[in-house]
């Protein structure tokens, strides 16, 4: 009432100005200044063209054409929703940093169906925070030093021990075995080679195919098979959890010695059984696929860059000499911290290979950025690959050049544009473990072997990464 009274007291011209202001604001909301772009076909939009497989070291024809035509921020219709696609480093950062305020994680329903409704990739808000805290505590730097470093080295040596000189094998398969065994051990103390671990690994392959397939729950489809695999995997996890809970009752929680995520979650959190199972499954997924592909890419890039292999060998030879002088056999945290060039190789691999090419978000408020409107409810895709391969930000972006990351190199790229691990409140919880895994694996690889491709292969983005031939290599031991 009082607002109406005050309005009546205004002069007619002020009233008119007020009316025009609100009218224009309404028009603006109805016809916002959307980024340029196209909608493609009805319903399907441009999804198929966007997802069309392409070499992992490129951004693909679709992105290339769209960026050339519309610029680094454009609109489209993807995954059945109106979408803003961003190849702009600033906007990508802005999106990630404003998680929960302006944008929210929003993966397609199929991912939630497979990874589970309590998976960290689909949770938002407080529940995401508490799951994240459990994961971060589990992957804390104290645990990395004391538990994970020796375990990573043990698993590396175990995988490499089965390699035979002169006999071709799939490097992709081997690094997948390595990261899977490592995660299975750390998540629920499964030992490599045990029947249960092998069963889980086989189920997991079917499961993965479903994560990236169309969500058609009809008998025989990849999605259907993956849902069945999910149940089998959860069956194993559940059985293990029951055994563990029973043992904890029998011997007392404090005497339980298994230092894995399962024990951690059972002892230290108020999560339900279903929530713990989804947490374990999503960590197995997040921690296995990504770092194994990163390692396969490193092996691939290094094979055609002998200069980098040589510099790595020098770095790791020095570390080995120091270890021998100390009379030690295993790598220490101090040794790991000396692996500077190795970290350059890791960064460059992730920049050029782009294991996680883009993430899914949606705008939860109406957002304005560089004059463009991003309407509330629209899907938003920050495409990291497009930033990492942007020639305005990286000289010769398609070249594998680990030296660009050297601290004193003149053209060292800005770290703020490097988003291989995402950023903001959802920054990859396993960043430090991933770096450690890759560095320790590389330490032994370059000191023990020379390797070459058995036949040409190349990583493709489907958009998940894969070497279609499995990256077949032959090794020769360094004596
Ligand atoms: C080179 C290897 C890796 C890469 C490139 C990578 C990349 C990423 C990216 C880009 C995200 C953000 C997803 C988003 O914002 O929607 C993410 C999230 C996550 N990653 Fe990684 N990751 C790697 C290894 C690992 C490992 C080894 C683990 C665990 C053991 C792990 C656990 C997670 C978890 C739990 C999340 C969810 C974080 C959250 O939502 O708060 N990642 N990762």
Automatic annotation (TrEMBL):
<keyword id="KW-0560">Oxidoreductase</keyword>
<keyword id="KW-0349">Heme</keyword>
<dbReference type="InterPro" id="IPR001128">
    <property type="entry name" value="Cyt_P450"/>
</dbReference>
<dbReference type="InterPro" id="IPR036396">
    <property type="entry name" value="Cyt_P450_sf"/>
</dbReference>
<dbReference type="Pfam" id="PF00067">
    <property type="entry name" value="p450"/>
</dbReference>
<dbReference type="InterPro" id="IPR002401">
    <property type="entry name" value="Cyt_P450_E_grp-I"/>
</dbReference>
<dbReference type="GO" id="GO:0016705">
    <property type="term" value="F:oxidoreductase activity, acting on paired donors, with incorporation or reduction of molecular oxygen"/>
</dbReference>
<dbReference type="GO" id="GO:0004497">
    <property type="term" value="F:monooxygenase activity"/>
</dbReference>
<keyword id="KW-1133">Transmembrane helix</keyword>
<keyword id="KW-0479">Metal-binding</keyword>
<dbReference type="GO" id="GO:0016020">
    <property type="term" value="C:membrane"/>
</dbReference>
<dbReference type="GO" id="GO:0020037">
    <property type="term" value="F:heme binding"/>
</dbReference>
<comment type="similarity">
    <text>Belongs to the cytochrome P450 family.</text>
</comment>
<feature type="binding site" description="axial binding residue">
    <location>
        <position position="428"/>
    </location>
    <ligand>
        <name>heme</name>
    </ligand>
</feature>
<keyword id="KW-0472">Membrane</keyword>
<protein>
    <recommendedName>
        <fullName>Cytochrome P450</fullName>
    </recommendedName>
</protein>
<dbReference type="GO" id="GO:0010268">
    <property type="term" value="P:brassinosteroid homeostasis"/>
</dbReference>
<dbReference type="GO" id="GO:0016125">
    <property type="term" value="P:sterol metabolic process"/>
</dbReference>
<dbReference type="GO" id="GO:0016132">
    <property type="term" value="P:brassinosteroid biosynthetic process"/>
</dbReference>
<keyword id="KW-0812">Transmembrane</keyword>
<dbReference type="GO" id="GO:0005506">
    <property type="term" value="F:iron ion binding"/>
</dbReference>
<keyword id="KW-0408">Iron</keyword>
